[in-house]
Description:
The complex is a heterodimer of chains A (about 280) and B (about 170).
Chain A: H1 7-27, H2 30-63, H3 65-103, E1 114-123, E2 130-133, E3 146-149, E4 154-161, E5 166-170, E6 177-182, E7 188-193, E8 199-202, E9 213-216, E10 228-236, E11 245-250, E12 259-263
Antiparallel strand pairs in A: 1-2, 1-12, 2-5, 3-4, 3-12, 4-5, 6-7, 6-9, 7-8, 8-11, 9-10, 10-11
Chain B: H1 3-21, H2 35-47, H3 49-67, H4 71-78, H5 81-90, H6 97-118, H7 121-124, H8 129-155
Helix pairs in contact in B: 1-2, 1-3, 2-3, 2-6, 2-8, 3-4, 4-6, 5-6, 6-8
Amino acid sequence: MVIFSRYTWWIGAMVGLALLLAVFGAVGILTPFQGVFLRVASPFENALSAVFDPVASFLADIGNVNDLRNENARLRIENEQLQNKVTSLQEESQQIAELQKALGIQQTAGSGKKVAANVVAHDTSPGVDVISIDKGSSSGIQAGMTVLTSGGTLMGTVTKVTSANAFVRLVTDTKSRVNARTLETQASGVLEGTLTRGLSLGLSQQEVNVGDTVVTSGLGGNYPPDVPIGKVSAVSGTPQDLFRTISVEPTVRLSTVRTVLVNTTFVPQRINIEGS
Amino acid sequence: MTIKTIVIVILGALAVFAQVTVAPRFPLWAAVPAFPLVFLVLLAAFGGPFKAMVATPIVAIALGFASNRAPGLLLLAYLPALPIGLLLEESDIPLSHLVRTLTSGIATGVWIRLLLASTVLAQAGFTISLFTKVIVPGIFLDFALLAVVYLVLSLIGLNGRSLTLPRGGFLAHE
């Protein structure tokens, strides 16, 4: 039997090592070693990604040829509509800028300095959705900063930083909580990651419809307001239901994003509720 | 350091890096291939238990650093692969080397996904999707990967080895 064999000492030693690693991890002894490891590993991880990205894309596309064709047709129409919308928004934006200048209002939140970084690794254990990027504290990145796709969609938050790397918890991670609202109906709630790396909008009591655009609300101060996240893909129940399920589909497939932008200007607000 | 050891180190490093770069690109529902598991199980099956005993903590720590997961937790996750294999070998059930390898790999794969999922169940809630979208697809992925790589290793002439530790001290493994 295993328990009486010479495996016993090994199992005991490994359990002991696991406990030791847990203690070392808790007090931060492992962080410098992790920094060195990530610095050495990054080029290899980048090379592996570069080799397998085209293969993965090709395989994914083969299975979705019809879907891609339909999506292409839909996007062409959407593109035309958006082009027209951009033209009118540019005019409005110019007017707003002039009015802000006249009234002395400074722009905040979504604007600001952003640092571009490459995704070097992606942990997709059950319920976990964490990426690591090739920029760290030496590039001005701090824990808590928000991370966006190159198109401006919210990806997540920086959770840990070494000198040359940073880990980002994606919004689809089960530990992620984002205060969000819908643009169309102003329904607000808390956006959470699900076990299957989806998104669900909880605690929302207002009317929500499929297709509504979900953006950050800015409540709580952890994220800047009005950063796009995705669209409502399914709604079950009515606003009167205590546990209504609202599924949200991210605007971009987060697992395929290779370049991200870290908003280094936005610093999360820690609101003192006591007011002291 | 022999050529064989260098090859094992390279394959181990590849398994860890592939887990955080290649695996997320090939998901089956919410499950992804477990390359370090495949590496450790096949290392034990073809390289003998001693090499797997040394490689298990190194792989767990490396994967913990690469993915920012607790290395201790990952070590506990990968720990059962060898004992399960030995239990099957010492049992009275007549199983071939291939079946024992696949069974220990798949059982450890289920244990890994359950253990890692248990750390987030407080946030995510225990849902049926854990089984339908993580555990069951994970079993299929582990089976497919182990079977294919086992076949390739057999075709290149490697022979399956016993998981029983040879007597004669630490140097008796060779």
